[in-house]
Amino acid sequence: MAKATITILPDEPIGLIRPELHGQFIEHLGGCIDGGIWVGEGSSIPNISGFRTDVLEAMKTLRPPVLRWPGGCYADDYHWEDGIGPVSQRPRRVNIWWGQNVETNAFGTHEFVQLCRYLGAEPYLAGNVGSGSVREMRDWVEYCNFTGDSTLARRRAANGSPMPFNVRYWGVGNENWGCGGNFCPEDYGAHYKQFATYLRDFSGTNLFRIACGPDGNNHDWTRRFFSKLGRFAHIQGYAAHYYCGTAGPSATEFDVNQWYELLEKATRIERLICEQRQLMDEFDPQRKIGLLIDEWGAWHLPTPGRNPHHLWQQNTLRDALVAAITLDTFNRHADKLVMANIAQMANVLQAMVLTEGDRMLLTPTYHIFDMYRPHQGATSVRVEIDSSAISFPAGPEKRQLPALMASASLCGDRLLLTVVNPHASLPIEAKIDLKRKAIEVSASVLTHNELNAHNTFDEPSTLAPVDGSFDSDLNAVVFAPRSVTRLQIRVA
Among 322, 321, 319, 303, which residue's Cα sits nearest to residue 311? Predict the structure, then answer.
């Protein structure tokens, strides 16, 4: 059995783990909204005001702090006025990005805000820069937030919401280097300044304006965008996207080396966070502008038998480890990030839930978010790991993956340690040095004998966390292979 040492340094805080790092994302894409979250009040599937009851209850358990909508690529072809007023009078539009489906617009601004209120999440709206106008986005802000007696405020009231929505988070476009208009950084910078100038703090909402950041860890985009931005003040956030992609023929078909390959790709988000924040610091040394990663996750090849444009994919133990590795990375760099949004909540990419007709299941990634939830609002503290590395081939290359990955947080007398053992077959025995006395230890472990273990509608509980306990001396904690472990430790 391999050996390791984990040293936790509770007197070396990194920063507050903002709940927003557990943000979610929904888009008009395949079955994410239609059939996944929203079925309409006339559906035979149990619902509350058109929202699936089972999905609402599952997501309320996770308590997502922030929810992003309507895209994604869809945002830059979405016109918000299509989604307000009587549903029967809303226009039907072609979704040019995701299979040319006809969107009914039954789910619009009011429905989205209602969903956020059900879940206790802050709404994050992505505005249309690619095919929209400055006026259109400016009016959306007024419609949502103005408390006075304007025509748009009256219109919101007539549509059922006399009180303002107080939407704070506004994205000025999405992926404007690609589906959001194919801008170069300078052109997008000019558009950003024009749009953001007219996004006002109506009625004291204190807007958080978010600019489109790079595709992955693209230094050139960031440097050129901020050079164009200059001293422009109306920017509070800068959002990168990082998908670790896939390895192997499908979400459920891969060999041991492809298991390691995807997990290693997931670790690369750490370099993005560090290098993008360092680049931003050159232009914003006081860190008045926050770094976000408002799309992230695994993106597997199309699932056979499914519409390839709808991005439905199964979610396995491997994806659970991708999520855990990523969330641990966010925790370790809590001083550098203000928000993150996994893609996406239901039925699309690395989803929390999958639905089929009136059935729903919780994915392994859902369980990871539930296991990591107690980190929210705690203080991240430094962790040192002394262990070997895992070597594996990825095509002609030789790559390495840490044998253990972890993060820790402290809240009062509760220390939370989450640990990933990515090895496909070997357990690791670790001595955990807390620098404090452990009084009580409880554990929760997610693992399975099969690398591609996943939940199905016929067997929805194949993969779920199991509770356990460890001796409080923590001198020989065994982390199972292919596992995620959460230790909740009461310390003196």
Answer: 303
